[in-house]
Amino acid sequence: MFRFLHNLITKKPFFAIFFLLAWLFLPFPFTSYHKTMEAMEQKMVLKNSIVDLNIQKQELILLREYLNTEAYIYDAAIKLGYSFENEQVIDIDFPKQQNMNNADPSNWWRREFRN
Questions:
Q1: Taking the chain, what is the end-to-end CA distance rounded to the nearest angstrom?
Q2: Residue 115 pLDDT > 60, yes or no?
Q3: 66 or 44, which is more confident?
Q4: Buried/exposed code over 38-77 (b: 16+ C-beta within 10 A; e: otherwise)
Q5: Residue 66, domain member (yes or no)
Q6: Could you tell me if residue 93 is inside a domain?
Q7: pLDDT digits (tens, 9 = 90+) for 51-108
Q8: Which of 50, 82, 89, 100 could cross-link 77 (Cys pair, CB 3.0–4.6 Å)?
Q9: How far does CA 12 lie from the centroid of its chain?
Q10: 15 to each of 1, 4, 24, how far by Cα in Å?
Q11: Is residue 34 part of a domain?
């Protein structure tokens, strides 16, 4: 082995320089390639997590919209045992209706939906 290296250095210095440079610089592209691949994988994982978070955000928005609806409040009240059978509906605008002129064209909906 020593004789081989001695002959390589003394008789063919170009090959010695080539092997030295190859020994020094070949591992770097290999490790940088792996680091690049790991970075790309992490980027894909982060993109997928962002997509998942956006889906969860949309689901939470829809859930919040549903929880703010009257249907949910009504269903929740029924589940809690509240009964709507003896409920009295009070028209807040009833005193105004008494004073309204039925001939007024802007009150057509009051005439249409009058009890």
A1: 110
A2: no
A3: 44
A4: eeeeeeeeeeeeeeeeeeeeeeeeeeeeeeeeeeeeeeee
A5: yes
A6: no
A7: 999 999 999 998 888 888 888 888 888 888 887 777 776 666 665 655 566 666 666 7
A8: 82
A9: 63
A10: 16, 12, 14
A11: yes
Overall number of domains in the chain: 1
Report the C-alpha gap between 84 and 115 in whole angstroms: 20
Question: What residues make up the domain containing 15?
Answer: 2-82
Taking CA atoms, 90 is separated from 30, 93, 94, 95, in Å, by: 79, 9, 8, 11
Instruction: Locate 102 and state its tokens.
Output: 């039925």
Structure-token match 């020094």, residue found: 24
Q: Are 107 and 101 in contact (CB under 8 A)?
A: yes
Task: Please choose, from the candidates 70, 109, 73, the residue with its C-alpha nearest in 3D space to the C-alpha of residue 93.
Answer: 109
Residue 107 lies in a domain: no
